[in-house]
Design a protein that fits this description.
The chain is an alpha/beta fold. The chain is built from 10 helices and 10 strands. It has one domain: Alpha-Beta Barrel (TIM Barrel), CATH 3.20.20.100. Bound molecules: NADP nicotinamide-adenine-dinucleotide phosphate. InterPro entries: AKR, AKR_Detox_Biosynth, NAD(P)_OxRdtase_dom_sf, NADP_OxRdtase_dom.
Length: 324
């Protein structure tokens, strides 16, 4: 495994982050604790030390499963990230959003579920239009001072919002966001316009979610609905949007080059992301040990510049997906 630094933190993270959204029981494609544990154990064996969960994943079950699995591990080596914003289970007043009250309650519950005193990275899952960012940053900064959180991260939002947050932190002497978890992959590159250059300028680490297009880049486009998760009844995959952005042609080029390199489509797609200098570590979701092993092997793939250009050429601008 290769390791790199997460933004300006000095903290070393593996180049593959294990996404833990598929641990729990809320959806038919999720894994129970025993099966999730197999993935987490294998990830640790393979050198992955970076794990991404959220309070809302399977109404908190994902955090519980991850916390119990890592409990037996050397926590000094692990970098655990969670998120807050969306409600855990059913929504109600003050059960979501980024007010001081919601952040303090949700963080306390997340730490309980994880079985940890401190979480390495607390990310705001989305921007909250109802709470001024200085209030949110004040509450997050206090959580760092209390020792409950080491670093703060952000997720899908407009670049102007991240710029606003970074400037607010600077002006008020508050902890700043050290990472951006955004929607970015070969078939969705809108982030290259403003968000990624901003992250580069500000030394904000980039940890793309859905790096395989939530499955879109892992199999031929006429087989996308073949898996339980690929069935539109079980999960919204933005296939029509990707298709409209040159996705089918990109998918075919991924198939072609994967065969040339002797790797899987998922590996080739991850290799493309890992070649992008602004990417720290893609947050990969999988329910299979074999697919996890493939993701780790993708770190070794060396893509020719001409092949990167070939993969990128069919892309066309598309509507924003991941935030409003
Ligand atoms: N911040 C946010 O708003 C946000 C939003 C969404 C997700 N996330 C994070 O990002 C993580 C990943 O997201 P994601 O799961 O939606 O997207 P993803 O990693 O792009 O795609 C996962 C899908 O690809 C399939 N896959 C993975 N490796 C494969 C391989 N080698 N061959 C064939 N298929 C393969 C998986 O199937 P198998 O299960 O069969 O491997 C699964 O259906 C989540 O776990 C979560 O931590 C964050």
């Amino acid at each position: 495994m290769e390791y790199t630094t997460l933004g300006a933190t000095g903290t070393e993270v593996s180049r593959i982050c294990l996404g833990c959204m598929s641990f729990g029981s809320e959806e038919p494609w999720m894994l129970d604790e025993e099966a999730s544990r197999e993935i987490i154990d294998r990830a640790v064996e393979l050198g992955i030390n970076f794990f991404d969960t959220a309070n809302a994943y399977s109404a908190g079950e994902s955090e519980e499963i991850l916390g119990r699995a890592l409990d037996e591990r050397d926590r000094a080596e692990q970098v655990v990230a969670t998120k807050t914003f969306f409600p855990v289970g059913e929504d109600g007043p003050n059960q979501s959003g980024l007010s001081r009250k919601a952040i303090e309650q949700e963080l306390s519950d997340s730490l309980d579920r994880l079985g940890m005193d401190t979480v390495d990275l607390l990310q705001i899952h989305r921007w909250d239009d109802d709470t001024p960012i200085e209030n949110t940053l004040g509450a997050l900064d206090d959580a760092v001072r209390r020792g409950e959180v080491r670093h703060l991260g952000a997720s899908s939002m407009w670049a102007y919002q991240l710029a606003d947050a970074l400037e607010t932190s600077r002006a008020r002497g508050l902890e700043r966001f050290v990472s951006m978890q955004n929607h970015y992959h070969l078939a969705y590159r809108e982030e290259e316009r403003e968000m990624l250059p901003l992250c580069e300028r500000e030394d904000v680490g980039v940890i793309p979610w859905g790096p395989l297009g939530q499955g879109y880049l892992t199999r031929p486009h006429d087989e996308l609905e073949a898996t339980t998760r690929g069935d539109p009844a079980n999960h919204h995959n933005p296939t029509p949007e990707y298709d409209a952005g040159g996705g089918e042609e990109i998918n075919e080029r991924v198939q072609e080059l994967a065969a040339d390199y002797g790797v899987s489509m998922a590996q080739l797609s991850l290799a493309w992301l890992l070649h992008k200098e602004w990417v720290t570590a893609p947050v990969v979701g999988t329910t299979s040990v074999e697919h996890l092993e493939e993701a780790v092997e993708a770190v070794e793939i060396d893509l020719a510049d001409s092949d990167i250009d070939y993969l990128e050429a069919p892309y066309e601008p598309q509507p924003i997906i991941g935030h409003e």
